[in-house]
Amino acid sequence: METKELFNLEGEKAIVTGASQGLGREMAIALAEAGADIAIADINEEKGEKVAEEIKNLGRKSFFIKCDVSKEDEVENMTNKVKENFGKIDILVNNAGIVSNYPAEQLELKEWNRILDVDLMAVFICCQKVGKIMIEQRKGIIVNISSMSGIIVNTPQPQVHYNTAKAGVIMLTKSLATEWAKYNIRVNAIAPGYMGTDMVQRAFPKYGEKWIPLIPMGRIGNPEEIRGPIVFLCSKASSYITGSVLVMDGGYTCW
Ligand SMILES: NC(=O)c1ccc[n+]([C@@H]2O[C@H](COP(=O)([O-])OP(=O)(O)OC[C@H]3O[C@@H](n4cnc5c(N)ncnc54)[C@H](O)[C@@H]3O)[C@@H](O)[C@H]2O)c1
User: For the segment 38-52, what is each residue's pLDDT rounded down to a tens digit?
Assistant: First the structure.
């Protein structure tokens, strides 16, 4: 196979969660440009419908489904609708995520649960519901969006709940990769550093300005820079890679 063919996703059907904006939108567009049809699953209907339109303008099939990924019944419904509409599900990108900042001693259990529900439990729910279809198909690729916060402790912002959830996503990824390799399902994670989405822009200037000197490359990542890594992990170009964590952080975790 020619090298450029390794990245061709024509005929593949994908779900990207949290794709109404930010990194999810970038990944949805990148997968569509590589040839895949894309279901957008998000709670933000207005923005999600616009991303689906953008993808249709690229000549691919796309539709938006309103889905809170932390609600099991909504994920079940979303999975069934995608299967009905596309006939199969080849790729699942678990990207939806939220963050908040509290010192550990002040963090209320309700807030701990809110973050863990969306950032960790929801990733498992989506993997399980879509994974059952991938097992039947004996084919599938899952990419979970963790964070460098699952590997190192960020500074100066306190976020014990987020860091713990993102570390959990890495072990969830490795566990599923080993359980489901026999079904021809690959499961990998991406661990981004600071990328210039709304999530990160909100942290300027309180925390953001303190981050730049900690990044060897001396800059925040451009959200578009996740396009290459996601197409790589969702394509034949990464056919012998499973249970891996692709760190894209401008070198932050090296120091
Ligand atoms: N931006 C960064 O620097 C960075 C770094 C590391 C990891 N990440 C991770 O990347 C992912 C995307 O981050 P982003 O910066 O694009 O964030 P963002 O806030 O710009 O976008 C998040 C998207 O997820 C959706 N969402 C939130 N809760 C949801 C729910 N319960 N169900 C369905 N959709 C929901 C939102 O509506 C939004 O469209 C997150 O998992 C985040 O933790 C981001």
Answer: 999 999 999 999 999
